[in-house]
């Protein structure tokens, strides 16, 4: 056991600092920047619907959600019931589906459906972009720098931090303040977000995209359906949500509310 | 670069006078920006900049400066490519605005139909087509086109509002009310649409259902005031609607407000409107864009 209150001293070669600490940090920053540009390069814009029916299939769901969320601030009972019945029967009968005849059949295999394939590839590319550099760098650090203690934190920490700060160094008695090279890598991995924000501008991977999207029509581009999801199931779900809805309206009594909140007492 | 650019945002687009002032400076703005863009092309390449360019183009078209509009359009299509949907819409708008006669407009329509047969969900072109049909004085075609559009894209509040307007112009009150309610379902906190719906209900309330419609009208006007407490149009409508209910003795009928509340409401609206008119008359320049509303409000106050 380390004796409490007694400062541990380890003689470190200052070269450790220049040849391990700096390289790891710089490599992490550079990969972060590289990954940002790679993401921008490989990002494919979400595919806009190609027919009016497809667009309706996507947006009918949003219409149901809108009705459910906002009906209370707009509609009186009569028009609410009318809309509810219309939406529910539409959802139930599959009137909003792109292809009502295909209803009930199992959804096309996403592997054979080109649109689904594309979306899956997009996700895969995004994940790869995270995974591959991480694996490479981690194995690089493990191969070259494992087992080095490179840094001493200027403040004391409790024993719990030992596994976080000293991965790769199996010494029980080493004080928690010492940081191993592998741990330094992890700290960089988690903690460089603000540095990237500084270098690449705030919301970095998204900034370029927003600009491209700015010229398109955001309302028409939205797609609440995930690839491979069966819209019919979502519709039935939404129909159920709508059916159990109780009508109330914040317009009831709005006149008294105004008088109470805005009018001076004399009126 | 900073000074003319910030001005664009301050001037409200709906006012013709300020639009004219702005459009007169357009050549200067465009010339200046092309100079500075050469130096720092990266910094001006933002969505904000292009949105402003689009606004400038619209203003130029409205005030007859077709040349500057062409410059704006060229710059936009240089950046986003002529096959971008929104650029296609803007180009269509430009062609329409510069069309000399009816056959030229018909040709635009033909072009839109061609584009749509290739890509049926080109929203800007769909909307341009409806607007063109409307300006060609074919409202029923415009309505059927819009119905197609809102059927495919039911989450577009703008389209629903336009549909309501078209219906109203054809005298189809209840359809117009339905469309505006749909628009409100998408944007439930927009006080202008609330008050627009109030106006619509007020104008539709002539037949047997008048009592209920007027009551709803008062509710929507009140809601618009609740959301924006010095909204002149809402207050104006509230006064008109409550006056009409009181005059026709609808107050206190089943489910309606009591006479006392309505009178209080009317008194409150009159008071508030008086305050607003007073304060805005002082600061005349700032409220230049809504001068006509102010005059109407003054006239209403004099009448009461």
- 3D shape of chain A: elongated
Q: How many distinct beta strands of chain A?
A: 2
Q: If helices are DSSP runs of H or I spanning 4 or more residues, what is the number of helices of chain B?
A: 16
Biggest β-sheet of chain B, characterized? none
Order of helices and strands of chain A: HHHHEHEHHHHHH
Question: What would you report as the Rg of chain B, rounded to the nearest angstrom?
Answer: 23 Å
Helical fraction of chain B: over 70%
What sequence of helices (H) and strands (E) makes up the elements of chain B?
A: HHHHHHHHHHHHHHHH
For this structure, the quaternary state is: heterodimer
pLDDT average of chain A, as an integer?
79
What keyword list fits this structure?
heterodimer; A: 267 residues; mainly alpha; two-stranded antiparallel sheet; 11 helices; elongated; B: 304 residues; 16 helices; 77% helix; disordered N terminus
What this model shows, in words?
The complex is a heterodimer of chains A (267) and B (304). Chain A is mostly helical. Chain A has eleven helices and two strands. Chain A has a domain at 10-43 and 148-223. Chain A has helices at residues 14-42, 52-74, 77-93, 114-145, 162-165, 181-191, 193-200, 204-214, 218-221, 231-243, 254-261; strands at 149-152, 178-180. Chain A is elongated, with a radius of gyration of 29 Å. Mean pLDDT of chain A is 79; it is low at 206-216. Chain B has a domain at 194-281 and 293-303. Chain B is globular. The longest helix of chain B is centred in the C-terminal third of the chain and has 24 residues, at 259-282. Chains A and B meet through α2, α8 and α11 of A and α4, α6, α9, α11 and α13 of B.
In short:
The complex is a heterodimer of chains A (267) and B (304). By secondary structure, chain A is mainly α. Chain A has eleven helices and two strands; from the N terminus they run H-H-H-H-E-H-E-H-H-H-H-H-H.
Ordered list of secondary-structure elements with their pairings:
The complex is a heterodimer of chains A (267) and B (304).
Chain A: H1 14-42, H2 52-74, H3 77-93, H4 114-145, E1 149-152, H5 162-165, E2 178-180, H6 181-191, H7 193-200, H8 204-214, H9 218-221, H10 231-243, H11 254-261
Antiparallel strand pairs in A: 1-2
Helix pairs in contact in A: 1-4, 1-6, 1-8, 2-10, 3-10
Chain B: H1 2-10, H2 16-24, H3 26-39, H4 47-62, H5 66-80, H6 85-98, H7 102-118, H8 123-135, H9 139-152, H10 157-169, H11 173-186, H12 191-204, H13 210-227, H14 232-248, H15 259-282, H16 291-303
